[in-house]
Design goal:
The structure holds 3 protein chains of 3 kinds. By secondary structure, chain B is mostly helical. Chain B has helices at about 10-35, 55-60, 65-95, 100-110, 115-125, 135-140, 150, 155-180, 185-190, 195-225, 230-235, 245-255, 260-290; strands at about 40, 50. Chain B is globular. The mean pLDDT of chain C is about 85. The chains are: A alpha+beta, B mainly alpha, C mainly alpha. Chains in contact: A-B, A-C, B-C. Chains B and C meet through helix 1, helix 3, helix 4, helix 5 and helix 6 of B and helix 1, helix 4, helix 5, helix 6 and helix 7 of C.
Chain lengths: ~425, ~290, ~270
């Protein structure tokens, strides 16, 4: 009896193991677990009802997702129908022929409504390869209450020297308030993204015109020294494991007097359900040190369709739905206009509801429109991209540079030592990539 | 052992296991060996080209490999020492009679069942975080300031987490072994006037030699390719302070997309694994065989 | 009597220290995001189920859990089916190569999985195994196989040879010997091995993350999607982690006696 039951259980197990029907009207979407995408997932029931297409979601952290997607697409894995990528990957992957062009989404889509700089960033040879879901630049968050109490005033366009002085005045670790929070977690999308803007505004560049890494140039030393000094003196403890999400949590919890980071967090910082500083936060432009070039980044998260997906037309339906004007309005109605996907469509910024709900709207739009990723450095440079360099090798370089700088941040290496090691590794990677002899 | 026994045909019995591992091992190994001699970047449209020993040269002349090897061995050694010592102590403690012993045993072994990624996240975010973490709150209340584990002692922090996960495993194996120590043996020792310390040193510890060897063996296998805990907490940093071989290969493969270089790293890791395996068999294997 | 209470105090303190991180995770899962990061940490708070609701709304927990169960059981069964004959042969009919084969098997386990990710991914794609439960079973069982073989081998060696020899004298074939004598005799060892294998497969993260998307994704993938999202996430992460951990923890607790009995490697007489 028992034996029969066991055999039956085994049979059921094996059947379940093998039985995996493929559904025809189903799309597999790989996306980041950022707040805006989670809203998209919650609202997608509307799309499923309208079209009868079923959606399966793979929602992962940014770095895991990026690894997963890259392995998949570069080996022709074809397990995803829609992927979420940024303005760094899109042109590179489009050039490899891995993406389906998206310039034919139909007349209702209104391409003209998308900010030019965002559209350019997602294009390759003039064709759009990914539809922007939301866009961002970087700017300064600060605590109006703390500034007021200390008798300080944040200018519209602060300089880094001012930031240093403010941080010194407001740093109060005894009450768990730190002068400034900045990304410290190593990674090209983390500390390196911020440092890249800092280095550019100090007048530096990643490469000279012969693609030789410039990490030992004075601008780099100055920028990294500033970063290390300020964070060691006025930053929160544990900064080397703080990425965007962790610093965001710190700021939202009221532990930072200032925070220079993505504009996309603004809606959430002002949402009282998700933040303790919703009433006391003010905004200013990203600080400038010496030159304005590259002082703030520009980035967008976008939806793309891999060439290997056999369901292109269905996938286009979804991409169109999730990046349309109508979608922004849907978020506005359901969850409040403040949380509408920012930084992609002019119409969002022109809508009175959004302007009323989101006091940061004008500042964000200006930041995005003035961040010229084709002229990241005041010096002549062979690359485009502010917080990244649009070559495949940059991920690797960003990883090692980020690691070495985080070592300098902990004090286990000096800034000079860290940059020398970073330079050496960057040269090795550029040599392997065939840029240097 | 009689001659006759060799007449049983072992071939069919062994084939499935050996075959499965061969496929699992040899096919990727051959592919790895092949890739390690190629210039092959996943993001490079140019496809692959023969590179000879270039990948190995870049790997060996780089600093990372040697640091990572040192970290790998340190990690294995330290966690092994802590889990064996901690596991033995806990096992001896839980072997004694006291009220609530069974519940205590359940609580002690619990961490072993938890996913490594979850353990690492809990430690990183809720306990060791210098701002929100519980440990920081305690030290701050005591006026000691907040320790920043992952910046100042990243490898030690990882060792602590891994030791927490695997000490229960040592307890799981050592405790029943202790309990099997017969009453007579203990009585005899007590008759001879052995105190608690002498009992531990001369009766219990020798009895545990073999199960301890088992623990060491299994744990080493897992610690050599430790990855999730590092990935979740420090991402190998700061600098290279907590990069082990597995993480280094991961970084080459999935940050640089440099399959050639990662494969060369993989070949080095296989070599290291075999050296350690032979060493282990020498030391541990002898203990295991001694009592046959 | 005094020593007894001292022992109890020591025992409870040790148990508390070991279990505390999990208890804290469990408690945090019932806090709001804001109280989860409060300093000083909130010990008394109004529990909420919002985090569980949010987690369950976002992901189909039942499917992830079902995949975890099936993959863990399937991998374990396959590994046992392959390992038992091999361990039997190595334990009772050792040849000069046995030791070497065992060593080689164990060394395959020491290879960092990421080193072979690209080759395995290419193979799995070639054979249509990506995002299938069977594909995950194949890779998991291969990766626990060395441990399973080795544990069974150690256990089988403790079985008194006289019994098997007596059977052989009675004319039993090796197959009969294996199925009717050895397996019933070594039930505790096989059970313990199976339990360990189930736990290892349940907690396996690398391959489930890289070789599945939706249909075959297990609970480790489920937790990964909550691991570090934007904003405050401690409470929701705790809820997701509790959901992913609870089944295997309860399973481990229930079966720990069987586990202990078979894991003793012959030290138990």
């Amino acid at each position: 009896m028992l034996k029969k039951a066991a055999a039956g259980a085994c049979a059921v197990l094996i059947l379940y193991l093998l039985y995996q029907p493929r559904r025809e009207r189903e799309l597999t979407i790989g996306t980041v677990n950022n707040a805006d995408m989670i809203l998209m997932q919650r609202l997608s029931g509307e799309f499923e009802r309208e079209t009868g297409i079923r959606l399966s979601w793979v929602v992962l952290g940014e770095s895991i997702l990026r690894q997963r997607l890259t392995v998949d697409i570069s080996t022709g894995g074809s397990t995803f129908d829609i992927i979420t990528i940024g303005s760094y990957e899109t042109p590179l992957w489009a050039a490899r022929g891995w993406l389906t062009p998206l310039d034919g989404l139909g007349p209702g889509y209104d391409y003209e409504d998308i900010f030019d700089v965002i559209r350019q960033g997602l294009s390759h040879q003039g064709r759009l390869y990914a539809a922007p879901f939301y866009g961002e630049s970087s700017f300064t968050y600060y605590r109006k209450d703390l500034f007021e109490k200390a008798g300080l005033r944040m200018p519209d366009q602060p300089s880094y020297e001012q930031i240093r002085r403010f941080a010194a005045r407001l740093h109060d670790p005894g009450r768990n308030v730190y002068g400034i929070c900045l990304r410290g977690e190593p990674g090209w999308g983390q500390n390196v993204a911020y440092l890249s803007t800092l280095m550019h505004t100090f007048g530096g560049r990643w490469f000279d015109m012969d693609w030789r890494p410039q990490l030992r140039s004075p601008a780099w030393t100055e920028a990294v020294s500033f970063y290390v000094d300020v964070l060691r003196a006025y930053g929160p403890p544990g900064v080397t494991t703080d990425g965007h999400n962790e610093t965001r949590a710190l700021y939202a919890n009221g532990n930072c007097a200032m925070w220079v980071d993505s504009t996309a967090a603004a809606g959430y910082i002002l949402d009282p359900n998700q933040s303790r500083v919703s009433r006391t936060t003010g905004f200013a432009r990203a600080p400038v040190a010496r030159v304005a070039n590259g002082s703030a980044w520009v980035w967008s998260w976008a939806l793309a369709i891999p060439k290997s997906s056999p369901k292109t037309s269905m996938a286009k339906e979804f991409v169109k739905w999730a990046t349309s004007r109508r979608y922004a309005a849907l978020v506005g109605e359901r969850y409040g206009w403040m949380l509408a996907p920012p930084g992609t469509r002019k119409s969002t910024y022109e809508s009175p509801e959004y302007q009323r709900a989101a006091p940061f709207a004008g500042l964000v739009r200006d930041a995005i429109l003035t961040a010229d990723f084709t002229r990241p450095s005041a010096l002549p440079a062979p690359y485009v991209g502010i917080q990244y360099v649009m070559i495949p090798e940059f991920q690797a370089i960003g990883a090692v540079v980020g690691q070495e700088i985080s070592a300098a941040l902990t004090g286990s290496a000096t800034v000079e030592q860290a940059l020398a090691l970073a330079q050496q590794e960057a040269e090795r990677i550029m040599r392997r990539g065939g840029y240097l002899k | 052992m009689t001659r006759q026994r060799h007449r049983v045909r072992t071939g069919p019995l062994m084939t499935p296991a050996v075959g499965m591992l061969l496929v699992w091992m040899i096919v990727p190994l051959l592919m790895t060996l092949w890739f390690s001699a190629q210039r092959y970047n996943l993001l490079d449209p140019g496809g692959t080209a023969f590179a000879g020993l270039e990948n190995y040269r870049d790997l060996v002349t780089g600093r990372a490999l040697w640091v990572a090897m040192g970290n790998t061995l340190l990690l294995v050694g330290a966690v092994l020492a802590i889990t064996l010592a901690g596991g033995t102590l806990l096992a001896v403690l839980l072997d004694r009679e006291f009220p609530g012993r069974n519940i205590c045993r359940l609580l002690v072994i619990a961490p072993f069942f938890v996913m490594p990624t979850v353990s690492a996240l809990v430690w990183k975010n809720m306990l060791m975080n210098p701002v929100f973490g519980l440990i920081a709150w305690i030290t701050r209340s005591l006026g000691l300031g907040a320790p920043d584990f992952f910046a100042t002692a990243p490898l030690a922090a990882i060792i602590l987490i891994v030791a927490w996960e695997w000490t229960p495993f040592a307890v799981l194996i050592l405790l029943p072994a202790l309990q099997s120590l017969s009453k007579e043996q203990r009585e005899a020792a007590r008759m001879d006037g052995a105190g608690a310390a002498a009992m531990f040193l001369h009766v219990e510890l020798p009895h545990l030699r073999r199960p301890m060897a088992v623990v060491a063996m299994i744990e080493t296998i897992f610690f050599l390719s430790l990855f999730a805990e590092i990935y979740v907490t420090t991402a190998g940093g700061p600098g290279l302070a907590s990069t082990n071989l597995a993480y280094l290969i991961f970084q080459d493969a999935l940050f640089e997309w440099d399959v050639g270089l990662a494969s060369a790293g993989g070949v080095v890791a296989i070599a290291l694994a075999n050296v350690v395996a032979i060493f282990l068999m020498r030391v541990v294997g002898r203990t295991l065989e001694a009592e046959r | 009597m005094r020593t007894k209470w001292a022992l109890a105090a020591a025992g409870w303190m040790a148990a508390g220290a070991m279990f505390f991180p999990l208890l804290w995770m469990f408690l945090t899962s019932f806090k709001t995001e804001i109280t989860a990061v409060a300093t000083p940490p909130a010990l008394i708070f109004k529990p909420t189920l919002d985090n569980y609701a949010a987690v369950l709304e976002r992901a189909d927990y039942a499917q992830f859990a079902a995949n975890s169960v099936v993959v863990a059981l399937g991998s374990t069964l396959l590994a046992l089916a392959v390992a038992i004959p091999a361990a039997y042969s190595m334990a009772f009919f050792p040849t000069r190569r046995t030791r070497g084969v065992l060593l080689w098997m164990l060394s395959t386990k020491m290879l960092p999985a990421v080193g072979v990710l690209v080759p395995i991914f290419l193979l799995w794609r070639r054979f249509g195994l990506l995002d299938t439960r069977i594909g995950l079973v194949l890779i998991n069982s291969a990766s626990v196989l060395p441990i399973v073989v080795w544990m069974l081998f150690s256990y089988f060696r403790e079985v008194p040879r006289e019994i098997l020899e007596a059977c052989r004298m009675d004319g039993a074939t090796p197959r009969e010997e294996l199925f009717h004598v050895l397996l019933p005799l070594s039930k505790p060892g096989i059970t313990a091995t199976a339990l360990l294998s189930i736990i290892l497969c349940w907690n396996e993260a690398f391959w489930s993350l890289n070789l599945t998307t939706v249909r075959a994704a297990t609970l480790t993938v489920f937790t990964a999607s909550f691991s570090s999202p934007e904003g405050l996430f401690w409470a929701k992460l705790s809820a997701a982690s509790t959901l992913a951990t609870a089944p295997i923890l309860i399973f481990g607790w229930i079966s720990q006696r069987q586990f202990a009995r078979g894991l003793s490697f012959g030290a138990v007489k």
